[in-house]
Amino acid sequence: MSISQALSEGVQTALIGLSTVFAVLIILMIVISIMKAVFYKKPKEKPATAVNAAEEELTRAIESLPVIDETPQEDEELIAVITAAIAASLNTSTYNLRIKSLRRVDNNQPAWNKAGIRETINSRF
Amino acid sequence: MLESIINFLSNTGFAQMIRQMGEMAAAGNWLQVIGTPLMLVVACILLYLAIVKKFEPLLLLPIAFGMFLTNLPMEFTQRLMHPQFFIDEQYLINGHDLDMQLIASQGGLLDLLYLGVKLGIYPPLIFLGIGYMTDFGPLIANPKSLLLGAAAQFGVFAAFFMALLLGAAGLGFDVKDAASIGIIGGADGPTAIFVTKTLAPALLPAIAIAAYSYMALIPVIQPPIMKLMTTKKMRSTVMEQLRPVSKTEKILFPIIVTLVVGLIVPDAISLIGCLMLGNLAKESGVIERLGKTMQNELMNIVTIFLGITVGATATAEQFLTPQTLGIIGLGLIAFCFSTFGGLVLGDIMYFATGGKVNPLIGSAGVSAVPMAARVSQQVGQKENPSNFLLMHAMGPNVAGVIGSAVAAGVFLAMFK
What is the per-residue pLDDT across B146-159, written as a single tens digit (0 to 9) for each? Predict the structure, then answer.
């Protein structure tokens, strides 16, 4: 191949190649933009009423539990963790919640259930 | 007694080496006279770089050791690897098809493992794991990153062009060789190997070693170019926070990419298809067990096989050639021009958006994930310590992986 041939071949291939790369990625860009228009909704400010309703429900649920304080202990850390977990599952802040009492529920699962859970966990490494 | 000692001695590697040296000296091929010891030294230098300097050790160490193994002087039939079986027309059926029977009956351990490279099995399997580990979220949040990922393929074609010119000037590169050399600029090891094993198998060791070494050197190569191409003010641009991406988008993305790439560049589909399958495995969240295998066991096994066999193709006859020097030089040029291409478009985007895009994320368009993105972050943070560009740079970075696979597909479609 002579130098002039190499020049023309090189320029041609570079142009075709680079424009193909751009074409594919620009098409992807357009598709992603369409996808955004279809599937992405700006996160709205959560209506406060929903949170309040959930909160009331939870409060009722917690209040309806018989309060049995077996071993009264001052485990603030544990309370904080549980409060945070409830807040996360309700999608609200811990400031909107008031935990009145926490009670451990006895684990009265049948042995077969426990074995089943263990097996499932183990099979997933 | 004496006879058996002499017999044993003449079977040792030393005797082999001396015999080979004699043959080469008789043939007047002076570079090859010291070929075997020189290649063992090169292998040791690469081992040093991998172990002490930590240059991509996961690949460079197996490559270097493969090189070491293959260059031990041995009888032809004892050798672990016979690159001739895959390259030399004498051993190929009709001059181009693999003689599987010959490889199965006479091949050594590494010949058999090398079939995974030659048949194009290992690189896609590695992409499966890479896909599982890649988060395309930043790309979906900022689709313009795709342009930067495309612009950073400039080096691929610049190096291709220069390799052709050098070839015409007498270094003996044809278009296929030039395409394989160019793809080094994609900064993507598996992609480079995938293209080279098809187009220019004889150059495979040099190209793989150049690609992986320069990838490790990205933190050295890129920053000077980045500073040259941007002003202080541009570098300290703070970008808007990326929007959150919904799960639906993340799940649809791999499917759409596979569809689009498959329709336009079918030759890239074994790479992109596996990359996207891996990603879908992660984003869908329903096949966690398979995903774990993809990103750990499978990928590690394949990496071992790939590294050791690619290294093993680097015999003295294949590696000690002027072409190798050319490839190492052109590989560096490819990396520089890829960085340059990404930065040019980054600059354009900076001006087009009125200073909302930091041009430094352009250099992350070369696909070495996540090294290139980290370099963007570091250079940006030097100007403005409170600036976090990493997530913005991950967009072009993962787009670069798609871009270089597409570039590879283009080359394969044109020259296969």
Answer: 999 999 999 999 99
